[in-house]
Design goal:
473 residues; 9 helices; 59% helix; alpha+beta; single chain; four-stranded antiparallel β-sheet
Length: 473
């Protein structure tokens, strides 16, 4: 019996000095080094936001209290975010489960049995009878088993689970960013529809007045019937456009309802006639920070780390496993004698197991783990490359839309003046009504294009924030 403690101590020392089969991990390098700055930033001055703004709640830069309130609801009620949060909790629980493998497993058992045979005997004064051959047996036992992590298999599993949990955490951040970006885009689309509805309604009222003018001139035999027909056609087209804008607004409103976790039938968002588009300045920073800030890039990198740990688990299968066990039991025919010294027995044990032949299954598993690592590393590099592409595209779009907006503002102002001038000239009988119709259509188109471009600048800013990883904190 004295050999067991020495043997157990030897295995324990071996476990303490265990070697790891997991390759040393380094973040996969890109095929080419990250650029010193974004290409589209040449000639730009990086914006510096006001210190009072919360750099985490990036949507506050749009300056819309209604959007701020909706974004808070998305944090709490969005079901995609809820699912990602549950996946993160599941991943954290898996880490705890893997870590439990480093410790012994202890179990407690107890039993009581009664058995007997044929005849009976009466005991005087006992008030009853028992079987002569009855026996009673009680037993209680406690056991423990422990698998020393000699080759680092369990620790590799823990490392992989922790990396997977960190990837799930990044997935949760990505889900939040995506939902918040969708909310901002849908909200801006709704407000653009509101602005266009108000604009087309006002224009339709003007067309209604123009129809009345042409009708009066026709009744006075000053204008031909064709002027009335053209005015009617123009008014009907504007009213048809208005119906389409109402449909668009409803679609945006329903999309927002889903994002905030509410049935579309119950959700209403009133029009805000005082709404004005605010285009924020986004501090872009340096390209190297992008790889640390974007949650999808972070998640891809953590999955590479998890795949690297899986290689260690697969390699550890080539080595023997050890298991230490201890068992103590007490058996007695009466409960009172159950814990007597003479009723106790104990045992200690050590087992070892080694697979001698598996037709190459373990080698295949290692090869599979290495291939999975190469796959996740390639996915990480691809995700990083797409991140740079996203930022460059949004920076270019922001610059282009800024120039377009200035030009379209000039065009809209000129079209408005032309419309008014030709309408006055028509009233004076100096031009044909076809000239007025063309000027009115051109002015309406220019006003709608101006609003669309202003909102496009906002949505591009939102897309840039998402491309940068959700703010710059």
């Amino acid at each position: 019996m004295t050999r067991f403690p020495h043997l157990i101590g030897a295995v324990s020392l071996l476990a303490l000095g265990a070697c790891s089969m997991t390759p040393a991990y380094e973040t996969p390098a890109l095929k080419s080094a990250p650029p010193a700055q974004f290409k589209a930033m040449e000639g730009w001055k990086t914006a510096t936001p006001s210190d009072h703004l919360d750099r985490g709640d990036w949507w506050t830069l749009l300056g819309d209290p209604q959007l701020n309130a909706l974004a808070e609801r998305v944090k709490v009620d969005n079901q995609t975010i809820a699912a990602a949060e549950a996946a993160y909790r599941q991943a954290r629980a898996l880490v705890r489960q893997q870590r439990a493998g480093l410790f012994p497993t202890i179990d407690l058992s107890g039993s009581g049995t009664r058995s007997g045979g044929g005849g009976t005997s009466s005991a005087p004064g006992a008030g009853g009878s028992t079987n002569a051959g009855d026996t009673q047996r009680y037993q209680v036992g406690i056991g423990a088993s422990w698998e020393p992590d000699v080759w680092g298999r369990i620790r590799a599993g823990i490392s992989g689970a922790k990396a997977s949990a960190e990837a799930s955490e990044a997935d949760l951040a990505a889900a939040r960013l995506s939902a918040q970006g969708e909310l901002a885009t849908s909200y801006l689309g709704l407000r653009r529809a509101d602005a266009e509805i108000a604009m087309v309604q006002a224009t339709a009222e003007g067309y209604q007045r123009a129809l009345q003018i042409t009708t009066n001139r026709y009744n006075a035999a000053i204008a031909p019937k064709s002027d009335v027909l053209q005015a009617q056609s123009q008014l009907a087209n504007a009213q048809s456009t208005l119906e389409g804008l109402v449909q668009d607004r409803t679609a945006f409103e329903n999309a927002i309802a889903v994002l905030v976790g509410e049935p579309a039938s119950n959700f209403r968002l009133a029009a805000d006639m005082s709404w004005k588009p605010v285009v924020p300045e986004i501090p872009v920073g340096v390209p190297s920070a992008l790889l640390e800030r974007r949650p999808d890039v972070a998640a891809a990198e953590r999955r590479v780390a998890a795949a690297n740990a899986d290689i260690g688990v697969a390699r550890a299968a080539f080595f023997p496993t050890f298991n230490l066990s201890a068992d103590g039991r007490s058996t007695a025919s009466r409960l009172g004698d159950l814990f007597a010294t003479t009723a106790n027995t104990w045992s200690l044990g050590l087992t070892a197991a080694q697979t001698l032949f598996d037709a190459g299954a373990r080698r295949a598993q290692v090869a599979q783990s290495r291939a999975a690592y190469d796959q996740t590393a390639a996915n990480y590099r691809q995700t990083a490359l797409q991140a740079f592409e996203d930022v460059e595209n949004q920076l270019t779009a922001a610059r282009t839309l800024e120039r377009q907006y200035a030009l379209q503002l000039t065009a809209s102002q000129a079209a408005d003046q032309t419309e008014q001038m030709l309408l006055n000239q028509y009233k004076a009988g100096q031009v044909a009504y076809t000239d007025v119709v063309a000027a009115q259509a051109s002015a309406l188109s220019a006003r709608r294009t101006l609003v669309t471009t202003a909102v496009s600048r906002q949505t591009t800013a939102v897309a840039l924030v998402q491309a940068l990883g959700g703010g710059w904190r």
